[in-house]
Design brief:
Blueprint lengths: L1 E5 L14 H15 L4 E6 L5 H7 L3 E5 L6 H12 L4 E4 L10 E6 L3 H4 L8 H14 L2 E4 L2 H11 L6 E3 L36 H7 L1
Parallel strand pairs: 1-2, 1-4, 2-3, 4-5, 5-6, 6-7
Length: about 210
């Protein structure tokens, strides 16, 4: 089976931005490279992944660089998937491109619905991409039970279509309970969100 992956986060060159989705993408691909000895993976990025990282991910991972970066997720990736179809697509950046693949979408946060004023430059894009993800995903993964409940309420999704996954960094499954942020030094200054759990942003803001 051929699995396509939105690995655009691995195109990031600024070390300060290598948090959040970057970490999820890198850690997930590391584990898949370690345990999956059967399937082939196509990692879509708009800049090449470092050779040292590719060696770490394993021989079944192939980096497919798609350019230009403009319209990358909504235009360039769909064109690539039409030319070279995959069986399954992993939407690791809260986005699912239009294709004939079976889709697994990842949703990290719906903060843009709660605090639209905090997303002046990206609100419309986040709204559109998340709606498309919900509509076209065969299954959805969220990083907490809290986000899972938010998705069910906001988009009227069947609970059976969504799985709240445990964070492998702090070991907690629900973001409802506030806890000390394990990545205190990595809090995003723009959104003041804990990279482990968006729902911990208030606690982090008060205690870091």
């Amino acid at each position: 089976m051929i699995i396509g992956v939105d690995a655009g986060a691995l195109s990031i060159r600024d070390d300060r931005l290598r948090v959040g989705v970057y970490r999820v993408t890198l850690n997930l691909l590391r584990e898949l490279g370690r345990i999956d000895k059967t399937n082939e993976y196509r990692l879509y990025t708009f800049l090449p992944i470092a050779p040292s990282q590719m060696r770490e991910l394993g021989l079944r991972m192939k980096n497919v660089v798609i350019r230009p970066a403009i319209g990358w997720s909504m235009i360039q990736i769909p064109i690539e998937l039409r030319r070279h179809p995959v069986d399954v697509f992993l939407g690791l950046s809260q986005m699912i491109p239009l294709s004939r693949a079976r889709n697994i979408g990842f949703i990290y946060d719906l903060g843009f619905l709660r605090y639209p004023d905090a997303y002046p430059g990206s609100l419309a894009r986040m709204e559109m991409q998340t709606k498309q993800l919900v509509k076209h995903s065969d299954h959805i993964l969220t990083i907490s039970k809290s986000t899972q409940a938010d998705v069910v309420r906001a988009y009227r999704v069947d609970k059976e279509q969504i799985t709240g996954i445990k964070c492998d960094q702090c070991g907690r499954l629900t973001g409802v309970e506030k806890h000390t942020c394990p990545f205190a030094e990595e809090v995003n200054d723009d959104n003041t969100e804990c990279n482990c759990f968006p729902d911990c942003e208030e606690y982090c803001r008060d205690n870091i």
